[in-house]
Amino acid sequence: MPQVDLEEIMAYLRGTNERRTYPLWQEDDCLAFIARGREYRSEFHLNPSFEMQYSLKGPLHLHWRTPEGKEQVSVVPEGHCLYQAPMVPHSPRFGPDAFQLVIERKRRPGEIDRFHWYCPACDNFLHEETFVVADYGADPVSRAYDNFFSSMEFRTCRKCGTVMPDR
Q: Sorted alphabetically, which CDD domains does this protein's record hold (predicted)?
């Protein structure tokens, strides 16, 4: 049974600007990774799996949307964990020196992850990116961000004209 040195992985992620996640394992029924700082997040992720998020270092501010579309924030202090049901639109935000251990179910064939952005001025829906996540090491969040932020059309609100600022 392999052991993982979480302190060593956090030190590695602190020392690189190229990576914000470190996959620990990816099995058929479970995947786990360490995530560093998500202060830049602006999208809401709809994951077809459950998620368990454990605050290793620093607090997590989990922005999420109710079934009616209202944005809420749950604060998960260091040393605490949160369980999240599938398909809850969520946006985990935490400082650049904070770390989360995330455990979820590996995606089943045909499952799609969705990433939604909303207007910062009027909260109107802006854009959706979709990905089939076969390998979390491929960093689907960064790919979704690249697609969204490279398009002025995607970032411009059709209701009020506000342009989502670049990252």
A: cupin_HAO
Asked if residue 22 is part of any domain, the answer here is yes
Alpha-carbon span 11 to 99, nearest angstrom: 11
Asked if residue 46 belongs to a domain, the reply is: yes
> pTM here?
0.88
92-130 residue pLDDT tens: 999 999 999 999 998 888 899 999 999 999 999 999 999
Number of domains within the chain: 1
Instruction: Report pLDDT digits (tens) over 81-99.
Output: 999 999 999 999 999 999 9
> By three-state DSSP, how is residue 94 classified?
coil
Is residue 163 in some structural domain? no
